[in-house]
Specification:
Length: 161
C-alpha cells in the first residue's frame, strides 16, 4: 500500500454567475489541477488540492464597485474581476470502494483582485495502472464564500509512491 500520490489533471470549470459581453451567464473556462495526497490507509486520505483557472473573467456580485447594464437594458448588476485565480484546499478523502473517492475540504482562492474562502466537495474515480500509476476522473463543486459557485470536471493522471 503506497502512502503518497502526486497527480495532475486537465479540467473545465463552469462558473455559474459569470458575466460576458455585458450579460450574466454561465462561463466554461479551462483549468488545471495539481494535487498531493497522503493515504492513512485504504479508506482515508488527506491532501492539498490546487486548481488554476487559466483565464481572467468577471462574476456577477452585489457588493462589487463596478456596475454594468445588460444587453437587454433592463437588468443592472455589479461585477468582481477574477484574474487567473488559483485555489488551494485541504481535502479529506474517504474511499468506500477502491474506484470511488469522496472528498470534502476548505481553503482559499487567490486572485490579483480579491481573495475568497472556498469550501469544496468532490468525487474522484481512480483506475489503477501498472507500476503505481493511476488514471482518474474528477468532479468538484466549489462554494466561494461571498462570491460565486463553480463546478469543475476533468481527467488526470497520478503517481503513487
Amino acid at each position: 500500500h503506497k502512502k503518497h500520490l502526486i497527480s495532475a489533471s486537465i479540467n473545465h470549470t463552469i462558473i455559474f454567475s459569470g458575466v460576458k459581453d455585458g450579460s450574466a451567464r454561465s462561463l466554461t473556462l479551462p483549468s488545471f489541477g495539481l494535487n498531493y495526497t497522503y493515504f492513512f490507509n485504504d479508506k482515508w486520505a488527506i491532501g492539498l488540492h490546487n486548481d488554476i483557472i487559466l483565464e481572467d473573467f468577471l462574476i456577477k456580485e452585489s457588493s462589487a464597485s463596478e456596475t454594468f447594464s445588460s444587453n437587454e437594458g433592463n437588468e443592472e448588476f455589479k461585477v468582481i474581476e477574477r484574474g487567473t485565480p488559483v485555489s488551494a484546499a485541504i481535502m479529506v478523502m474517504y474511499k468506500p470502494l477502491p474506484f470511488l473517492g469522496l472528498m470534502a475540504g476548505a481553503g482559499r482562492e487567490f486572485s490579483s483582485h480579491k481573495d475568497f474562502t472556498v469550501i469544496r466537495f468532490g468525487i474522484e474515480t481512480p483506475v489503477h495502472l501498472p507500476k503505481n500509476w493511476e488514471l482518474f476522473g474528477v468532479l468538484t463543486y466549489d462554494i466561494n464564500i461571498d462570491a460565486y459557485r463553480s463546478l469543475t470536471y476533468g481527467i488526470g493522471i497520478g503517481k503513487l509512491f
